[in-house]
Amino acid sequence: MENLETIMTMAKGLIIEYGINLIEAVIALVVGLWVVNMLVKQVGKVMVKREVDPSLIPFLKSVLNISLKAALVISIAGMVGIEMTSFVAILGAAGLAVGLALQGTLQNFAGGVMILLFKPFKVGDVIEAAGYVGGVKEIQIFNTILSTPDNKVIIIPNGNLANSSMVNFSTMETRRVDLSFGIDYGDDFEQAKSAIMELVNADSRILKDPEPFARVGELGDSSVNITVRLWVNSADYWDVHFDMIEKVKSTFDAKGISFPYPQMDVHQDK
Predict the structure, then answer these.
(1) pLDDT digits over 188-232, tens only?
(2) Count of beta carbons in the 10 Å neighbourhood of residue 96
């Protein structure tokens, strides 16, 4: 009888102890789930307010939701008395192994998230990256797809884009067209400059502010090189670039201004 009473007393103590822990764990779980859901909703609202890419918001919310709930479950298990140290260690080792196996893929994924979050470029922009120049056709979570002027499709991993230099030609509304024209040393520089400025002033696409620039940029081995700098709207850049080259060539030919050929004098000892 004494042994039975002792067992009953111990059982009652265990039930009271673990029962209280279990009740506390249930309450903590309910409150924790409510807090997690509220936090995820608030983070979603903040991302919408900051105009984060719509395709990225559900994914980020899911990752945050799963991470917080996993941390909550581990904490609740510890409250109940379940030893989680070994489980966490095994989980960490498994995560490390998977991370090493998918290192390149995860790098591209992280790069895609950073690009969609910080938006260094958007669909339709013309960029230069990874040795390629083209218009951004599509931004995916792992890759960015470019379309080149000659209609090639370039697929660039987002990891490379996020970790290297990139030039965005579409960010600014205006761009500067840099040109250089070489004339013979015997030609009249002022006549050549005047001819260029007449063409510049006649083109309505060339902006007046900043003021167009035409000066001697270099005294070359065979020519006097005239540097011309013109500001235009970004959409007009290439049209103005090629039009000015063609018009200057035609105008110089009509006015007798020559483009000298590179030449070299060779002296031979007799």
Answers:
(1) 999 999 999 999 999 999 999 999 999 999 998 889 999 999 999
(2) 10
Q: Are residues 137 and 163 in the same domain?
A: yes
Looking at the structure, do residues 86 and 139 belong to the same domain, yes or no?
no
Is pTM beyond 0.90? Reply is no
- Residue 262 maps to a domain: no
Q: For position 11, what pLDDT does the model report? A: 54
- Domain that includes residue 40, residue range: 2-101
Residue 56 lies in a domain: yes
**Residues paired with residue 214 on neighbouring β-strands, in sequence order:** 228
Query: For the residues of the chain, what is the DSSP string, one character each?
Result: -HHHHHHHHHHHHHHHHHHHHHHHHHHHHHHHHHHHHHHHHHHHHHHHHTT--TTTHHHHHHHHHHHHHHHHHHHHHHHHT---HHHHHHHHHHHHHHHHHTHHHHHHHHHHHHHHHH-SS-TT-EEEETTEEEEEEEE-SSEEEEE-TTS-EEEEEHHHHHTS-EEESSSSSEEEEEEEEEE-TTS-HHHHHHHHHHHHHH-TTB-SSSPPEEEEEEE-SS-EEEEEEEEEEGGGHHHHHHHHHHHHHHHHHHHT---PPP--------
Specify the CATH number for the domain of residue 206. 3.30.70.100
Q: For residue 187, what pLDDT band results from cuts at 50, 70 and 90?
A: very high
Boundary (domain end) residue, out of 168, 192, 227:
168
pLDDT per residue as tens digits for the range 100-140? 666 677 788 888 888 888 888 888 899 999 889 999 998 88
Nearest to 47 by CA among 57, 39, 37, 55: 57
CATH number at residue 154: 2.30.30.60
Structural domain tally of the chain? 3
